[in-house]
Amino acid sequence: MGTRGLLGFIIVGQRYASYNQSDCYPEGLGKDIMNFLLKLTHEDWGKMLELVKEIKWVDQKAEAPVELQDKYMKLGYHLTAEMAESREEYMKEGYSVYDETSDWYSLLRAVQGSRALEEILKGDLKHMTQNVEFLEDGVCCEWAYFINFEKKALRLGQMDSFWTKFGLSGSV
Asked: What is the top-level taxon of the source organism (predicted)?
């Protein structure tokens, strides 16, 4: 089990967040988020603001429509790099979890964390699982990051004990 947390957005004052299974500590996901944000141009900030407003937030256990399963599978969103490497071995042993993609969590499991940001910016990722309630689990949700593209700010929290806001407007 890894360091679990959330990657989220503040959109028109409302928090939305997607679960991230591992490496959510600042040196992992936090660093990746900052690297992404610091590379954004002024135009990219505006583009991300519009794109995150268009995201459809879905229940991770709900079944995704077949056409979206096809779309996201073609983009490789259902297999993490580790899963892709070990897929053949597991399939020989009779496991099918690597091909189960009907629910949103399974379909989007490889775009957890900062990869989601890149895919949103490319215009490919239009759906994310809504798990903001995980924030209330102070034991299991170890780190949470909320990006506000409108205010060019990042909020960071650890196990609901503190929140720090970083202004990023000087970076664009």
From this structure: Eukaryota
In degrees, rounded to 5, the angle at the alpha carbon of residue 14 between the alpha carbons of residues 9 and 20 is: 35
Can you tell me the distance from the alpha carbon of 160 to that of 142, in angstroms, rounded to the nearest whole number? 8
Q: What is the pLDDT along the chain (172 residues), one digit of tens a residue?
A: 578 788 999 999 999 999 887 787 789 989 999 999 999 999 999 999 999 999 999 999 999 999 999 999 889 888 666 665 665 665 565 555 545 678 999 899 889 889 999 999 999 999 999 988 776 655 577 788 999 999 999 988 876 555 666 666 655 4
Residue that has been written with the tokens 């947390």 in this structure: 5
Which residue bears the tokens 């004990």?
A: 161
